[in-house]
Amino acid sequence: MLFSYSSSIITNFFSKTLIRPHSSHPVLLCTMSLNSHAFAGNPITSRTAKSSDPFSPQSAFQTLKTLLSTQSHDPISPDFKILPFRKGRPLTGSNQPNWHLGWLSLGDFRAFLEKSEVGLSENSLVYLGCKYEDDVVYWAIDVSEASELVSEFGDRQFCFVELRTLMVATDWADSKAMGELAIAGHARALLEWHNAARFCGFCGGKMVPMEAGRRKQCSNELCKKRIYPRVDPVVIMLVIDKENDRVLLSRQSRFVPRMWSCLAGFIEPGESLEEAVRRETWEEAGIEVGEVVYHSSQPWPVGPASMPCQLMVGFFAYAKSLEINVDKKELEDAKWHSREDVKKALTFAEYKKAQETAASKVEQMCKGVEKGQSLSADFNVESGELAPMFVPGPFAIAHHLISSWANQVVMNGTLSNL
Length: 418
Ligand SMILES: [Zn+2]
Fold this sequence. Notes:
Its EC number is 3.6.1.22. By secondary structure, this protein is an alpha+beta fold. Helix content is 29%, strand content 27%.
């Protein structure tokens, strides 16, 4: 069955639509609910407790330290749940149609480690957040060194799955599943940052985790430099022509055939977001941009390993010129696409089918039937055989920039989303 990325989903995504006053362009300003984008809307990180609160990083860490030193198995309040990662992949289980994270109790986790003769120190656990209503504090841990755990967990139908595969396998209409994906993304970003930030950039001393892994500090008493988890901002823009009839989409050589997407680029030091949008569009496509309008943003913890979490900041960028001059070092091609062609691309791409296929592959992996660990390449292809082109799936902010433009209509001189 072909899946059409229907207008009802778009309406749900955008909770408020405003016409921008004094704008030279018919612009939609959209505010989005927190759960809109993949990796946003994490259900367990929103609270910052006072340090005396038992759910706070400081108090929970002290409790953890006591539990590990006394080897106590008594029930505690709040309860602790632990999510193991191996090489950036979270432990995952599956109850079709949805995958779920492989949370373990502290007791179970210790039992696994004892079997594998791996020691556990409080400094190897990273605080993720808490849920007061469930009386639980959540932790993540990197167990990449303990390869024996793979078969131990495999016996219980859990396996470590690539985050990109989980991203494609997540049903974006299911807020619980989207919440699980956001937790996995946050945890992976923190653990990858811990792995990359082992030594002090000032004196070369060893960096040690502080505040239950929420920051790090140089162990050299003369230095004590503090560092915090890294976020790399990226602008991503849908460039729209003066008439609001066509958009500029581009192809990179790494894209699968027929896929087109928005321009994007890193922000340079000393540059505003708007300046970055204009500079990148000029450098990559030779187009002059005038007005720049914010759309929404998306955490992106599945980029290169050197950047544990990018923040994609999305804009509509209104072109002042039309002639394209592609920088072939950056892009394979860039072209103006009509609204009709973009709508066709959105209608015929088989996003739902790709998601369901990925979800069933994850289940096969958890059952031990499928051994492959990196399915992301296959499932970046939202095949769309009937369409001459397609755009990235609903897990990417590019999709929402493109679909919200494609589905906007002018009615009696005012704009609204269909
Ligand atoms: Zn230092």
